[in-house]
Amino acid sequence: MDFTFSEEQQAAVEAAQAVFGPVAPDGVPSPSLTSGAVAEDFDRALWAKAADADLLSLLIGPEHGGAGLDAIALCLVLRESAKVLARIPLLEHSAAATVVQDCGGARLRQEILPRAARGELVLTVASAGHTGHDPAELAVTARKEGDAGSDAWVLDGVQTAVPWAFGADRILVPAHTGEGEAVLAVLPGPFADVPGLTLAEQIVTTGERQAELRLDGVRVEASHVIEDATAWSRLHDLLATGTCALALGLGEGVLKMTSDYAGKREQFGHPIATFQAVAVQAADRYIDLRAMEATLWQAAWRISSGASGPLPVAGDVAVAKTWASDGVRRVVQTAQHLHGGFGADTDYSLHRYHAWAKYLELSLGPAAAHEEALGDLLAAHPLG
C-alpha cells in the first residue's frame, strides 16, 4: 500500500504553509478578552492571500479556473490552516463549490464557480439543522411554488449556527421535500434584501459570529436549487471530513506547543519533559493524533476515489469523527494540564486553541453518536 501524497497534493501543502505560516496565533481575536463577537468579519486579508495562492480553488475544475484536486488535498490544506487558527471559511467555501460543480446545473456552475475560484464570491453552508443535533435537511421544508410547472421553490424553517454567514455571498441550505428527498437551495445575497429571510447573530465558543437562519416563505428560483439526490449526503460527508482535518491540525499545533514548553520548563533542576508522568501523557496524545490522521485519510480517500468498501463512505466518516471528536478534546485537556496555570494565561495562545477545540468538538458531535451510527451501518451491511 502506498501512503505517500501526490506531487500536486504536496504542492498544495507547500502553498498552504507559505500562506498560513506567517499567521501568529497570538494575534487571533480571543473570546476571553472580548465581550460579544471577537470580530465583525473573517480575516479578509488572509482570504486574499489564500486566493492568490489558489487555495480557494483546489477542488474546482480547470474549466472554471481551479486546480481540479481532491478531498485529500483540501484536508491537507485545512490541516495547515488549523495549526494557526486561520479565520477564513475555507472548508465551507470549498465544500460548497464542490457540490455546485458536481451536482449543480450549468447556469449555477457558471454563475458561481469562476468567481468562487478567485475568492470574489464567498460560499458557506447551513449544516447544523435546527438544534445542532437533528439532521440538517429536516430543519427546512422545500415545496414547488404553485402548480407542478412552476420554476421556483419555497423554503420554510430554521437553520442554526451557520458559519461565516454575515460575510458570505451565498448560503447553501439543505431542505426536505416531504417525499423523503433532500434538495440544496443556494440563497443569493445580499440576504437583507431577500423577502422572508432573517439572520440573527449567534456567538460560538471561538467568539466568532454565526447566524440563525430563519426562512419564512423564501422563494428560490429553480436554477438555484440542486435536486440531485446525492448532493446533500456528499456535501455533508465532505464537511465532516474537513472538520476532522481541522481537528487534526489544531491538535498537532497544540502538541507542538506542549512539547516546546515541557522541554524548557524546569522543576527540581530538570525539564519536566524528562519526567515519566509527563512523557507518558504526551505520548498518549501523540497516539490520539496518529489515529485521527489514519482515520481522516481513510475517509478522505473514500470520498476522493469513490472506491467501494464493505461499508458506505458514511462508515469511514463516522470512524474519523469518533476519533477527531474525542481526540481533539483529550489533546487540549492534556496540554492545559501540562502547562499548569500558564495554559490559562490570556497572554499565551493556548486558551485560544482550547476555545477552537471545543467548537470543533461540538461541531463534530459526541463520539457515542458516531459509534451508534457506525453500529447501524454494520447491522445494515454485515461484514463477510
Rg calculated over all Cα atoms: 21 Å
> What is the tally of beta strands?
10
**Biggest sheet overview:** 4 strands, mixed
Q: What is the 3D shape?
A: globular
| Poorly predicted tracts of residues | none
Distance between the termini: 22 Å
| DSSP summary: helix tally | 10
Structural classification: alpha+beta
Task: Give the percentage of residues in beta strands.
Answer: 15-25%
Features:
384 residues; alpha+beta; 4-stranded mixed β-sheet; 4-stranded antiparallel β-sheet; 10 helices
Structural summary, described in words:
This protein has 384 residues and is α+β, with helices and mostly antiparallel strands. Helix content is 47%, strand content 16%. The chain is built from 10 helices and 10 strands. The chain has helices at 7-20, 44-52, 71-83, 90-103, 106-117, 231-264, 276-305, 313-339, 350-364, 367-380, and strands at residues 123-125, 140-144, 152-163, 170-176, 182-188, 197-203, 209-221, 225-226, 266-267, 270-271. It has a 4-stranded mixed beta sheet, covered by helices on one side. Helix 4 (90-103) runs antiparallel to helix 5. The longest helix is centred in the middle third of the chain and has 34 residues, at 231-264. It starts with 6 loop residues before the first helix and ends with a helix. The model has no long low-confidence stretch (mean pLDDT 94).
List the helices and strands and how they pair.
Blueprint: H1 7-20, H2 44-52, H3 71-83, H4 90-103, H5 106-117, E1 123-125, E2 140-144, E3 152-163, E4 170-176, E5 182-188, E6 197-203, E7 209-221, E8 225-226, H6 231-264, E9 266-267, E10 270-271, H7 276-305, H8 313-339, H9 350-364, H10 367-380
Helix pairs in contact: 1-3, 3-6, 4-5, 4-6, 6-7, 6-8, 6-9, 7-8, 8-9, 8-10
